[in-house]
Design a protein that fits this description.
Blueprint: H1 16-32, E1 39-43, E2 49-54, H2 67-74, E3 85-88, H3 94-102, E4 107-110, H4 120-125, E5 129-132, H5 136-148, H6 150-156
Helix pairs in contact: 5-6
The chain binds zinc ion.
Length: 162
Amino acid sequence: MSKEERIPETGLRAGDREGLEIALAEAQAGLLEGGVPIGAALLDSDGRVMGRGHNRRVQDQDPSAHAETDAFRKAGRQPHYRGTTMVTTLSPCWYCSGLVRQFGISRLVVGETRTFHGGHDWLAEHGVEVVVVDDERCVRLMTEFVEQYPELWFEDIGEERP
Ligand SMILES: [Zn+2]
């Protein structure tokens, strides 16, 4: 199957599933480091990994080190982002949605949107191709994390704990 060929009815392309596995592995690595378990990978137009990373808020004491920004930085400087795909385990926050739009990243593959509803709808409205996988493993990872570390979660999404 060519990389451009779609997997019927899912909107996924070849490489997206592998990208999600990488993002999930990054999220799990972040959890083991005591961090917020969100992972991401930036794929080129052929589905190859340009950069991968995870939320590093706790590890680096850096509230701007989100999974998507970490993967984006690891990909290094690029002339453009046309045709690239940001794969993330969780719906992107406004900051990361802004990054996708700012740099013209063409596609967004989201592991899940149930535990957090970020800017994926907004990105779709602005021409980004958005695919929500609704992966149970991503849901479980975030659900358990939010239950166990509510303070860290609300700090990460910039909200006060109710
Ligand atoms: Zn973010």
